[in-house]
Amino acid sequence: MAPPYAREEPILQDQAPPSYSSLRNLPMIPSPPTDARSIRFRNMLLSLSATPLSWENPGLLDEALRMVPIDRIQTEAEEESMILQAEAESLGKKPEWGYQDCAIKALMKWFKQSFFTWVNNPQCDACFCPTISVGTTAATDDEAARGATRVELYRCSQPECGAFARFPRYSDAFVLLQTRRGRVGEWVSCFGMLCRAMNARVRWVWNSEDHVWLEVYSAHAKRWVHADVCEGVWDRPRLYAEGKHLYNSYHYVTILTNDSSSSSGWRRKLGYCIAFSADGAMDVTRRYCRNPAKYGKERARTPEPCLLHILNEIRSIRRRDMPKQEKFRLEGEDIRERKELQAYVVMAIAAEICKLMPGARADGAQWSDPDAQKAEEARQTGETQYVRAPGQGNRQNPHNPHNPRRDQEGR
Fold it and tell me: Distance (Å, rounded) from C-alpha 290 to C-alpha 208?
């Protein structure tokens, strides 16, 4: 007879090892890319991560700052900061934005309305008539020396003229300070350099659906804030996927295009939104796509553990020579931001649950905060400008007459 300890007891169902599906929510372990597709994606992200490094040259930043109307920016920032302070005191709350945030918003207004020009098809250099695209051409020695990535060629639409116009696509922010024209890529690159010249911490956000924008760190709010200079919007991250809050609450007006779709945003499914800065990289897709099941696009360029490894690698490279205290501070910021991004997941789930409750709004929208409504009414009181709804005679801004859906051909 076998001893008691040698008996084989049957394994009950509740004693069986947990299934793999029960382990899905455990912390993800970074894994280096090994397949060819993941390695290509890694190389691309490493290349993209160098974009904001061009904004760190102190000499170029000093030159860029000379082009900014500092007195105008400071005056507008002080006015808005004082209004926000008064609103906050009346509501017993902390002001929504600090002085530095207001200065960047004022900089965006000036940049969009007065400094940079949007170009779809350049005008004919001879007769100033519209032109028609005829493809690309080789860069001249001067264009190549200034860093033109490619040169688009256009022919005058007037048969009797027939002249050609060249449109070099520059990526160097300092060159763009002289040319002052371009599309999304040029706008964001030049504005990012001016933000750095104003001593703001800036991120360059790459989106896999062919768009780029910035994030500016708000020391007042202690978080990264969405800033799209092409659209002229500040802290409206849900614009691209859900079309939320398109009309901003500046004390100036952002003139929209005549396209009626602008009133509902882009309604675009998002795959990857990766933010790069001089001190690291972060996957911020959750900030811009709150409901991946509804607004998300398949993320198939690399497995998620590989993406985490790639971003950790970029972060390690950028912080390699930093003092230990600075690394510790940035790691604290990373932890807070991850909690913020995780909170968006929780809020998205809660919003879906609330739709199932009796008395929920049919459109699934959340009821607004009464204090926020009061603050918005206070902002609008005394404003002399207004935003006209699309289709009601609003005119285009000559510095940005673009339509994001029409201009898919290039950043």
Answer: 16
pLDDT digits (tens, 9 = 90+) for 76-89: 999 999 999 999 99
Q: How many CA atoms lie within 13 A of 286 on its CB side?
A: 15
Is the CA virtual torsion 67, 72, 75, 78 positive or negative? negative
Query: What is d(CA 183, CA 211) in angstroms, rounded to the nearest whole number?
Result: 10
Q: Both tokens of residue 73?
A: 């920016």
Check if the beta carbon of residue 310 is closer than 8 Å to that of residue 302. Answer: yes
Cα–Cα dist 229/111, whole Å: 8
In angstroms, rounded to a whole number, what is the distance separating the alpha carbons of residues 211 and 85?
34
User: What's the pLDDT at 271?
Assistant: 94
pTM of the model: 0.78
